[in-house]
Design brief:
- Helices cover 40% and strands 15% of the residues.
- The protein is an alpha/beta fold.
- It has one domain (2-238): Glycerol-3-phosphate (1)-acyltransferase (3-Layer(aba) Sandwich), CATH 3.40.1130.
- The protein has a seven-stranded mixed beta sheet, sandwiched between helices.
- Helix 1 (2-31) packs parallel to helix 4.
- The longest helix has 30 residues, at 2-31.
Length: 240
């Protein structure tokens, strides 16, 4: 019974915080429209939201390390492995400016999807070549504005502790725009959100580790596969 009561409280608090986040962002969108065209202030609102959502869940224990590897004045192509929808929350713990490359369906979720739209994250429609071209055009524009772009290069969540094969797009983009790759390892979040139930039962001990950035200046356009494999190997090593 206690897990049911706690779960109701967790979901209620999370939903209320997300509604609050949306209305804060909506208010700031109107008030700061002439002054915050790159949505930096809007994006920063997700920091307190993530802190609150994680802090209020007694089943979640998250350890963050490697933040010293982030230069606040540098734009990166951020690449992270993907285990759970909970990754979307924990990634905001790096407290830096970035834009997701996120699938279109996430933008349709009430409140959280509306926040993604307000903050101008990059929408990907799977299976449409025109959408892929649009994604890389928008991602390149953000990088040239010195705002990082975050990819889950597996394309979908891994069902095991092994990291799936990476797609090439993030690495082609990093080489083209001459931006360093910032690898981020996420472990332990697979059970963060219950599957097939709404009741939290399992304690989650998760880790988010920011690895040292990888300079892409010496990579040629045709070297994307080598860069992809280097990043994959580093994330695999960090996960074990």
């Amino acid at each position: 019974m206690s897990s049911i009561v706690i779960s109701i409280a967790i979901w209620t608090a999370g939903f209320a915080l997300t509604i609050l986040l949306f209305f804060v962002e909506l208010f700031l969108t109107v008030v700061l429209f002439p002054f915050d065209k790159e949505k930096r202030i809007l994006h920063a609102q997700c920091f307190w939201w993530a802190n609150a959502v994680i802090g209020l869940n007694p089943y979640w224990n998250l350890r963050v390390s490697g933040l010293e590897n982030i230069d606040a004045h540098q734009a990166y192509v951020i690449t992270a492995n993907h285990q759970s929808m909970g990754d979307i929350i924990v990634m905001y713990k790096i407290h830096t400016q970035f834009r997701w490359v996120a699938k279109e369906s996430l933008f349709k979720i009430p409140f959280i999807g509306w926040c993604l739209s307000l903050t101008k994250h990059v929408k990907l429609t799977r299976g449409q070549f025109g959408s892929i071209k649009k994604v890389y055009r928008e991602a390149g524009e953000w990088l040239r504005k010195d705002i990082s772009v975050l990819f889950f290069p597996e394309g979908t969540r891994s069902d095991t502790d092994e990291i799936n094969e990476f797609r090439n797009g993030a690495f082609k983009l990093a080489i083209k725009e001459k931006k360093p790759i910032l690898p981020i390892s996420i472990t332990g979040t697979r059970e963060a959100i219950p599957k097939g139930s709404w009741i939290f039962k399992t304690r989650v001990f998760a880790k988010l580790k920011v690895l040292p950035p990888i300079d892409t200046g010496k990579f040629q356009p045709g070297d994307f596969a080598r860069l992809r494999d280097i990043v994959h190997a580093k994330l695999e090593s960090a996960a074990h």
